[in-house]
Amino acid sequence: MKEQSKKGLLFRSADFKIIQEEVCPEQSSKSIMTEGQNTFNLLFLLSQGIYLEAQDCRTRFLFKKNQYILHYSSQENTSLLWTENPEKLKYLQIQVTYQYMEKLIQPESDHESADILKKMVNNNYIFLHKETPPLMTVEMHMIVKEILSNPKKGITQKLLIEAKIIKLLILMIEQFVEKKNK
Fold first, then answer.
1. How do residues 52-96 score in pLDDT, each as one tens digit?
2. How far apart are CA 46 and CA 94, in angstroms?
3. How wide is the angle at C-alpha 52 spanned by C-alphas 163 and 178, nearest 5°?
4. 82 contacts: CB under 8 Å, gap ≥ 6
5. What is the per-residue pLDDT for 8?
6. How far is CA 116 from the centre of its chain?
7. What are the structural domains, with CATH classification, of the chain?
8. Residue 64 pLDDT
């Protein structure tokens, strides 16, 4: 029995958009990912050896399984993702609007908040070490799994998704602060 590819919008609200991608190796193992204008994009790479080519700057990256990036896009961009491995191309993309992130972080409240938002906008949360994206923690994996298998609908779904995205952001920021303090 042939496996089916999965691509789809899992959730959308005024502030968030969550897209899951699974492409079977028998089919084209390429995918086009779109980043919306003025959005933060959390990209969780869930299969081995994923190449990403950013169309705006023609930069090519090779990711290992379980790495992630947090990327800010001031304009709409597309990236091509593909794998040369025999397994599925799998990733999860979470888009968060700049307005939501600004409201959440409240940069006007204190210097630390302003610094965090500035670093996020300047894409300082992409590489944990020189040109190496960070690895997902066990807790991040559990949250991603909960997002992918969320059976809730309506307002309970929106609240759960929002809480999970906030928790992912906390874990990411903590990971970078921990690296800085080493």
1. 998 777 788 899 999 999 999 999 999 999 988 888 899 999 999
2. 13
3. 50
4. 29, 30, 31, 50, 51, 89
5. 87
6. 17
7. 6-180 (2.60.120.10)
8. 92
C-alpha span between 161 and 18 (Å, rounded): 9
Average pLDDT, the chain: 88
Q: Any idea which residue has 């929106």 for tokens?
A: 158
Question: Could you write out the DSSP letters of every residue in 106-168?
Answer: -TTT-HHHHHHHHHHHTTTTS-SBTTBPPBPPHHHHHHHHHHHT----HHHHHHHHHHHHHHH
φ and ψ of 100, to 5 deg:
-65, -45
Q: Tokens 């593909």 belong to which residue?
A: 82
Tell me which residue of 158, 167, 26 sits closest to 87, measured CA to CA: 26
**How does residue 130 score in pLDDT terms, banded at 50, 70 and 90?**
low
